[in-house]
Amino acid sequence: MKTIKTLSAAALAIGVMGGVMIGGNAQAAVGGPKPPSLDWSFNGIFGTYDRAALQRGFQVFKTVCASCHSMNLMAFRNLEALGYNEDEVKAIAAEYEVQAGPNDDGDMFMRPATPADHWPAPFANDKIAAISNGGAIPPDLSLINKARASGGDSAIRASLLQPGGFPLGADYIHGLLAGYKEEAPADFSLPAGKYYNEYYPGHAIAMAPPLYPDGVEYADGTQASVDQQAHDVAVFLNWVSEPELEQRKNLGIKVMLFLLVLTAMLYALKRKIWANVH
Amino acid sequence: MSGSSNFQSNSKIVNWIEYRLPVFSFMDAQLNQYPTPKNLNYFWNFGSLAGIVLVIMIVSGITLAMHYAPTEAEAFTSVERIMRDVNFGWLIRYIHVNGASMFFIVVFIHMFRGLYYGSYKAPREILWIIGVFILLAMMATAFMGYVLPWGQMSFWGATVITNLFSAIPLVGESIVQLLWGGFVVGEPTLKRFFALHYLLPFVIVGLVFMHLWALHMHHSNNPTGVDIKDEKQDTIPFHPYYTIKDMYGLGVLLLIFAFFVFFAPNYFGHPDNYIQANALVTPAHIVPEWYFLPFYAILRAFTNDYVIYSWFLQWFMSAKLAGVIAMFASILVLLLLPWLDRSRVRSAKYRPVYKLFFWLFVIDCLILGWVGGQPAEGTLVLIGQISTTWYFAHLLVFIPIIGILERPKPLPDSIAASVMGSHAPQAAE
Fold first, then answer.
1. How many CB atoms lie within 10 A of CB A195?
2. CATH of A27-74+119-243, one of 1.10.760.10, 2.60.34.10, 1.20.120.530, 3.30.420.310
3. d(CA B196, CA A121)
4. Tens of pLDDT along B302-352?
5. Chain B positions in Cβ-Cβ contact with residue A165 (cut-off 8 Å)
6. Which of A263, B152, B186, B241 could be joined to B272 by an S-S link, Cβ 3.0–4.6 Å?
7. Which whole number is the average pLDDT over B232-240?
8. CATH homologous superfamily for B38-228+236-283?
9. What is the ipTM for the molecules in this complex?
10. Which of A29, A72, A160 sits opposite B264 (nearest CB)?
C-alpha cells in the first residue's frame, strides 16, 4: 500500500509539473479560434499516413502551393514514401529544372532534376518572393505543420490526452485553407490587399484563397472540393513535417511493450529480493 | 569516505591490480556493500534516475554533435538533416530534446524530496550545496542547448536572456557583448554556446562525483530523518536491495520517457522553434522552456508598481536589475537553506507546521511556473508578484520562524524502530 501511495504521489508530481507548466507554454502560442479537429489517419499511437491522400495532397501542393511556397527540406527521393516507385520519382524530378555548375567554362547552367535534388524554390530569394506577393514572403512549407502545432488554445494539452503526438498543425492547415470567407464581418475592417480568414491569427491574411472547387483534377478521380483539397494537402504537409512519423510510432509500440514487460519483471524481482527485509 | 570492504578475490589479475590501485575494494565498498537505510521510499529513486538521465543526455548529445553544424546558415538545416537523413537521427534528437525535460522533472522532484525530508541539514550541507551548483550548471547547459537548433525561440530566447545582463551597472553592456561575441546574437554566439554546451555536461559529471562523495560520507538521509545508529539494524547493503529498486524505478521512468519520445515528441517544445531564426520577425510571445518558467515569472514580477520594489528597492536600482537579481537569488538563496532552517528535526513527517508550508511552497512554485508561461498582463502580473513574494518569504522568513517556534512530534528511536512501528496493525501515520 505504501508503495502504491508513494508511486501515485510521484506520478501526480510529474503530471502536475508537466501539465501545468506546459499549459502555460501552449497558452502563450494562441492565435484565433480553434480550427475543427479532424480524425486524421495519422492520429493516435497506431497512426499511419493514407497513401492515396498523400498523393492527392502532393498533387495540390505541386499545382497550387508550389507556385509561391518553397519546400527546401524535401528531396525528390523522399517522394518514394508517398507510394511512388523509383521510375515515377525520376519522372517527377525530370519535370523540374535545378541550377548546377559551374561547368568547365565556369558557367552555371540549368539541368533536369534528379531524385537526389531538393525541391526547387519558386523564387530566387526572399526579396523577389516579397515583391511578387504584395510584400509578404510565403513561408517555406517543409515544417509548417510542426511550426503551427498549437493553432488553438490549450491544443497541446488536448493532444496529450489523445496520445497522438501533435496532429494539430494539420487541423490548423486544413482549417486555414478551407476557412476563407468571401466577405469579412461588418464590424471588421479588412486592410487593402488582405483576405478574411476564420482561423488565421488576426484574420487578415495576405495569401489569396488558394483552393477552388475542382481547382485540381485528381488523378484518382476523387471529387476535388475545397475541403477535400485542404484535407489532402494538410496530410501531405504533415508528412513533409514528420516523415519519420510511421517509423516512430511503430518502433514506439515495440519499445513500450518491451519496457512494460521489463519493468514488470524488475518489479517482481524487487518484491522477491525485498521479501524478507523489515 | 566511510564504509569498509572485506573484498577478497581468487583472481590473480584482480589481486595484482587491487594491490596497486584498490579500485575493486573501492567499488565493492561504495556500490555493493554500501550500507543504506532500509526505509527509503520511492522518492529516493530520483537521485540515481538523474544520474542515468545525465548519461543518456551525454551519449545522445555527443552523437548529435557528430552531425550538427554551429553556423547561422547551417544550424537549423543541419538539425533537420539529423531528423530526416541521419539513420535514426530523429530518435537520437527526440531522446535528447525530451531527455532535457525528463532531467529537470527528475531533479525537481529530487530537490523537493530533499526539502521535505530535510536532507540539506547537518552534516549534509555541502552535499546540498553541490546539488544547487549542479542545478545551476544544468540550467546554463539547457539554456545554451535550446539555442543550438537556431529556431525562432532559440534566437529570441537567447536575445532576451542575454540582454538581462545589460541591467548590471557599469559592466553590463560589456558582459552582454562578451556573451554575444559581437553586438547582436549571431554566429559567434552560436559557436560559443555550442562549445560551452559540450563542456558543461562534463563539469556536471565532476560535480555529481563530488555530490556522491559527500553523500557517501554520511550516507543517505531517510524518511524519518533519524541518523543511522546501528548499521546491522538500520541498514541493508546497497546491492542487491537498492540496485534492483533503482532498476525498477528506471523502468518506470523509461516508460514515461519513451511515451514522449515516440508519441508526443514535441509536447515540451514550442512550435515557433520549427521556424528558422529571423532577426527581423519577433514572435508574439517569447517564452522559455517550461523548466525556466518559475524563474522567468520571478524575473517579470519586478515592475515599477511591485510593492517590494517600489517600497524599498527602487532607491537603489532599476526594476529590470531587481528582477535579474531576484531571478538568480531565487536559486542562490537555496545555498543558505541549511542555516536558514533552525529546526534540528529533519523530516517533515514530524514537523506538522513545516509540512503544511512545504506543500504551500510546492503549490507556489507551480503557480510561478504557470504565470511564467502566460503573457504578462492584468491580474497575472499581480499573481506573479504575490507568488514571488511568497517564494522568498518561505525561504527567508517562514522557514527560520517555523524552525524556532514549531514543536515537532516525537521522533522514533531509530530507523529500525520506525520500520517495525509501521508494521503494527492499523498503525496511524
1. 17
2. 1.10.760.10
3. 36
4. 998 888 888 888 888 899 999 999 999 999 999 999 999 999 999 999 999
5. 263-266
6. B152
7. 94
8. Cytochrome Bc1 Complex; Chain C (1.20.810.10)
9. 0.91
10. A160
